[in-house]
Design goal:
Length: 222
């Protein structure tokens, strides 16, 4: 079963201008992502869906095919699902697609390979998650506990925590996407990504954190 890798990278971004091309350790986020996707060696083809010439140029430099997305899929209100649907409608040969987020700078090839292996093993969809040990409370006042009993607050080591989507990747069979789903089916699985790898670049603060973490890791190696 062939799996297509897809990066959605529109030109507009409200939080950070040209976010997908932000340099991290002197390399654009998109290029970092494409290098890991090639390293994973689990995709029959790799595509970047974009409406931006500079992003398209970077995608080609990174060895990806470029899909020129329709304008209606590149607005602030357009969902990822909308963009994926538009892409697969132009590529009816695709049966499984893996949407990879290039603003997850600490993506690793092993996470992608694990997800694809699960799909090859019979899963309908697989996505990335991160385990968090956070107590949730309802919005508004009075507030109520959502995932704990205040009378029996567990110690961290006694609690497995909750799983949260981190947006790093979603892999799904195309029939589910046509049903309006990125996750679902009779067998829906996940790949757990440690917190230190799950950062998503969404603000200038995130860029600073990511760059400092890279520096720290490089010091540890040397």
């Amino acid at each position: 079963m062939s799996v297509t890798g897809l990066v959605l990278a529109r030109g507009g971004s409200k939080g950070i201008k040209n976010k997908n091309l932000i340099l991290l350790n002197k390399k654009p986020l998109l290029l970092r992502c494409l290098e890991i996707m090639h390293e994973a060696e689990c995709f029959s083809s790799i595509w970047v869906s974009t409406d931006d010439d500079k992003i398209a140029e970077c995608a080609e430099r990174g060895g990806a095919n470029v899909h020129r997305r329709a304008e209606y899929t590149a607005t602030d209100r357009a969902s990822s699902l909308c963009a994926v649907l538009e892409f697969i409608q132009h590529h009816p040969e695709i049966c499984v697609v893996c949407i990879v987020q290039c603003t997850s700078p600490f993506l690793q090839a092993k996470y992608l390979r694990t997800a694809v292996d699960k799909i090859q093993g019979g899963y309908d969809s697989v996505f990335s998650v991160t385990r968090r040990h956070l107590f949730r409370w309802s919005d508004g006042e009075p507030t109520y506990p959502q995932n704990l009993d205040p009378k029996q607050r567990p110690c961290r080591q006694e609690w497995t925590g909750d799983l949260y989507e981190n947006g790093m990747f979603y892999i799904s069979r195309v029939n589910l996407i046509f049903e309006g789903l990125l996750q679902g089916g009779s067998r829906c699985g996940y790949v757990e990504v440690p917190q230190e790898d799950s950062l998503d670049i969404d603000s200038p603060f995130d860029v600073i954190i990511a760059q400092e973490w890279i520096k720290y890791c490089q010091k540890e190696i040397t």
